[in-house]
Each structure stands twice: as C-alpha cells, then as structure tokens.
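Let's sit down with a protein and look at its sequence and fold side by side. Which protein we use is up to you, so please pick one and set it down. Label the sequence line and the structure token line clearly, so we can match residues to local backbone shapes. Go ahead whenever you are ready, and we will take it from there:

***
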Amino acid sequence: MRYIRKAQDRGKADFGWLQSQHSFSFGRYYDPTHMGFGNLRVINDDSVLGGHGFDTHGHRDMEIISYVIDGELAHQDSMGNQFTVAADEVQRMSAGSGILHSEYNASKAAPAHFLQIWIEPKLKGITPSYEQIQIKQSSALTPIVTPTGAQGTLSINAEAEIHRLQLHQGQQIELNAHAQKAYLHIVGGEATLDGEAFQQGDGIGLIAGDNMQVTAVTDVEALWFLLLN
C-alpha cells in the first residue's frame, strides 16, 4: 500500500514571521502515524518574512538539506561558514558530532520560501561539514544529492539520493522505486500520479519495486527521494 500525504493534512505552525507546514512530526506537531518515511525524517515547507529567521541553535547527527524555492537564505555556523543560499541552490549540512548555526531571510523586505529536509545519517559522530551548490537541470530527472557526490551532486552521510524532477505541461515520466523506499514531494505545480491528482505540498511514498506514471497537468517541480534504508 502506498503512503499518501496530502498538503492540507500536514502539521502547521504559525509564528507570524514564519509559516511552516510539516509533512512529518516536528516540533510541537506530533502524529505517531507520520514520523517520517524510511530514513527521511523531516520535510518542512517554510515561508519566512523579510528580516526574520532562525536564531543560533544546535543540531547533532542529522543530514540537513535546505532547498530554496524563492528568495535567499543567509547561513552562518560554528565552523565559520557564512554563505547566502539563493533560489535553485541546494545546501547540505552534516551536523555530526554537533554544530551551531543560524538561518535568516537574506532580504529585509521580500519573503523567502524553502524546504528544510532532514535525513537520518549512516554514521553518527562524524566531523560536521557544509556544502552548497547550484545544479543545472540536465534532464527531466536530475540527481542533486547522492551518498558519494557523484556527477557533481552534493554528497551526504546517508543511504539516500535526492533527484529534482521538472516537467513541462503535458510531459510524462515513469518513476521506479529501485530502493527500499521512495518518496515524491511536489514542490510546485500540479500532476497526476497514476491518474490521481497531486499538487504543491502533496507527497507519496512507494516501496521497492513499485513504479508510478507522472503526468504534468501544469509545469511541475518535485523532489524524488530514493531511500536506501
């Protein structure tokens, strides 16, 4: 049976400056039936007002990916990194043995919209590290994160891959779950997945050996996770 997570059913947090929607249990939102999918632990869909952000806080033993959709994020951490992450860029932070960081909307006026993704690590207690890249779309399905950093992707201390899917209206693609589990999160647009309507914020999980026909109703962008444990 497939795991279906509709956008309207996600957990929600409203802090005024931050509007966050949680695909899986996070912070004050807890639902034992939605604790993650495989080693994919968090997908938070965050909108941050200009001039606001997350003050310095700590993480440990988690692979944290920020995927910027609109605007820019200003990142600073205890390793001395100070970077701005722009739309279409992807950032990976391996928290490992422990790291402090802050993340702010780089603009004082315009909002920023991004996904924060947590994946459980393969090895615990590693030296923290940071990496940031922009990856051009080379095909409808383009790898952006892999365990080895192959093909110019971000490397990750986890048994997982992330691919960015971009389809124009009317285009189709078949996705195959050639991993223990796979998960598709719709970043923007509308699509049918084996004939069922999905839109921005919706997600669907598959198990090994399953496949799915994706048809773009509008131009669509999505993230396809291959979860190897």
Observations:
- DSSP finds no helices and 22 strands in the chain.
